[in-house]
Design brief:
It is a single chain. With about 575 residues, the chain is α+β, with helices and mostly antiparallel strands. Among the domains are: about 80 residues, no CATH class; about 55 residues; about 140 residues. The protein is built from 16 helices and ten strands. The strands form three sheets. Strands 5, 6, 7, 8, 9 and 10 form a six-stranded mixed β-sheet that branches. Strands 1-2 form a two-stranded antiparallel ribbon. The radius of gyration is 69 Å and the shape is rod-shaped.
């Protein structure tokens, strides 16, 4: 800071210099010193002092010192004489404080006195000028944004726009790949890329022109070309996988179709969502077809419910997906090939279902075309196996079906004979079931006889099967009776014996004792017998046989009084009683 300094020197003795006194003018002309021209030293510039603007106050006139004569004031129209600046010397007193006015030396002159006043408020730090936007080539910005990587925004230093664009792109890709996977929604991504490219072009067009845009265009192209290349390769690879899947489907191999579709990855799903959707649809269709094939395979055992489920599934698939006709044909061929190697009764059941429920359409209708070539032999073989197992009723149904549906087939005569045998077996089984196995009890057959048409008509020499009591029938000749009803001509339903008519009455006297007399009656043996012809189930006789025998023996042990006794029959008496029924 510069301030007034009161100094005395040889040239200023008796004078006081304040800040209002202009400095002495210096001669600025160069001087020659020793042959060299010297310039006067520059006037030092004081450091600026900031503060509110104030008018300078005139310093009061110094009091005259003792022994000095006051200097008279100068006239108004005369200029004050310049006072040479005094050199610095020792302090002679306090330094007065300058007012809030800054003075800068700008050169001496009569107009300014070598000083100028500056308002401190006008002194301020200059604001940094905003950096101008970078110059970006519009084509480069458009190419960079078209890559969906927001490279154009990065070239324009629009970082927030770049982050926002990338987030929108990623979100849209995920929605397009996982949620809304159709062609139209996927095409919006192309429109989004075009919008980003246009916006990048528009922002770059407002910037300064780029003298050499090649470098920026290379950056934009380097961002766009790899994206296009990767997307193109992924789509081409996905198209190749779809082509292989379609070829496998057209060849009837649904398993290979599914295997090809499984090669599609999440990258393919991002690049071409609609194609991945078609692949998933192909997988679901093949799984649907596999379920129908499994139902048909289960139906090979003859279960009609599984057959109905399998063929209805194939019919529905052909209606919904006509392109899968070869696959359906392949499944049906496998079903028919497996059918020919199944057990005869299973083949008979399946062919019967196919005959009764002929599938609609040419593709499935041909399954019923194999019935005439498979069913007759299957029916015959199945009937024979059922007979071997003792299942005569199902066997009879098989034989009758063969005769009824294929009367001119070469197996029809044999089927007729087998059907008759099965019928006889059924009748015999019914007779045996009605007769039961217990002895001594009148069986249900005796009250409700069923015919056994295989048995010969009843006539001599007949053979009897005894049902019921065998107290006297066991005394019949062995060649009169049979143990197996299938060999009999008549069934004798024999009830327990009872007392018949009186054959003879004889008087007896008690031996010893009181010698009392008694009368004893000897009764014939009464046996209720029902004779049933086995072949027809007709009742031949329903009467009570009476068997006679010896009466009135010489001695008898009996109680006193009138006593009733049975005769004592001989074998001949028994034979004579049963002979008419057995027809001997």
């Amino acid at each position: 800071m510069w301030g007034p300094v009161a100094q005395q020197g040889p040239a200023t003795k008796g004078r006081t210099v304040d800040e209002t006194t202009p400095p002495e003018p210096h001669d600025e002309t160069p001087q020659d010193v020793g042959g060299e021209r010297l310039l006067p030293p520059p006037i030092p510039t004081p450091a600026p002092v900031l503060g509110p603007e104030r008018r300078p106050e005139q310093a009061p006139d110094p009091e005259p010192n003792a022994g000095t004569t006051p200097r008279p004031p100068a006239p108004a129209d005369t200029e004050p004489e310049p006072v040479p600046a005094a050199p610095f010397g020792p302090d002679t007193g306090p330094i007065p404080v300058l007012p809030q006015t800054i003075a800068y030396g700008v050169g001496a002159g009569p107009e300014t006195g070598g000083y100028a006043r500056i308002d401190p408020a006008s002194v301020h730090q200059p604001r940094p000028e905003p950096s101008p936007p970078p110059a970006v080539d519009p084509l480069a910005a458009a190419l960079g944004n078209a890559s969906l990587l927001a490279i154009g925004y990065l070239l324009l230093r629009r970082r927030w726009l770049a982050v926002l664009a990338v987030l929108v792109t990623v979100g849209y890709l995920l929605v397009s790949a996982l949620v809304v996977r159709n062609v139209f929604f996927h095409l919006v991504l192309v429109l989004w890329a075009g919008a980003l490219a246009w916006h990048g072009w528009w922002l770059a067009a407002k910037s300064d022109a780029v003298s050499r845009p090649r470098r920026q265009r290379v950056i934009g192209g380097a961002a766009l070309l790899p994206v296009l290349l990767v997307v193109t390769l992924l789509r081409l690879d996905a198209a190749g996988i779809e082509s292989d899947s379609d070829a496998a489907r057209d060849g009837g191999d649904c398993d290979r179709t599914v295997a090809e579709v499984q090669r599609l990855s999440f990258a393919h799903q991002l690049a071409d969502p609609p194609l991945v959707v078609r692949g998933e649809h192909a997988t679901r269709t093949c799984l649907r077809l596999a379920a129908s094939a499994a139902a048909l395979k289960a139906g090979l055992s003859g279960r009609s419910a599984s057959l109905s489920e399998g063929f209805s599934g194939l019919a529905g698939l052909l209606q919904d997906e006509p392109a899968y006709d070869n696959v359906v044909r392949h499944v049906l061929d496998g079903f028919l090939a497996d059918l020919s190697g199944r057990e005869p009764c299973e083949v008979a059941d399946v062919t019967q279902w196919l005959r009764d429920h002929r599938p609609d359409g040419d593709a499935l209708g041909r399954a019923a075309d194999v019935v005439p070539s498979l069913e007759p032999r299957a029916l015959m073989s199945c009937g024979d196996r059922l007979v071997e197992r003792g299942s005569f009723q199902p066997a009879l149904a098989r034989y009758k079906t063969l005769v009824a549906k294929y009367p001119s087939h070469e197996l029809a005569p044999r089927a007729k004979e087998s059907a008759q045998k099965a019928q006889w077996a059924i009748e015999l089984e019914a007779v045996r079931s009605a007769l039961g196995v217990s002895t001594g009890v009148r069986p249900p057959y005796c009250d409700a006889a069923t015919p056994y048409t295989a048995a010969p008509p009843h006539g001599p020499p007949g053979r009897a099967y005894v049902a019921g009591s065998s107290e006297y029938t066991k005394r019949l000749p062995a060649d009169w009776l049979v143990d197996d009803v299938a060999k009999a001509t008549v069934v004798l339903c024999v009830s327990p014996s009872a007392q018949g008519s009186v054959a003879e009455t004889c008087p007896y006297k008690e031996v010893g004792g009181l010698g009392r007399r008694s009368t004893i009656s000897f009764h014939r043996i009464a046996i209720p017998v029902r004779a049933i012809e086995l072949a027809t189930g007709r009742v031949l006789s329903d009467s009570t046989l009476e068997i006679g025998g010896a009466t009135c023996p010489e001695f008898i042990t009996a109680k006193s009084g009138d006593v009733q006794e049975k005769v004592t029959p001989t074998d001949a008496d028994v034979h004579a009683a049963f002979a008419p029924l057995v027809k001997r």
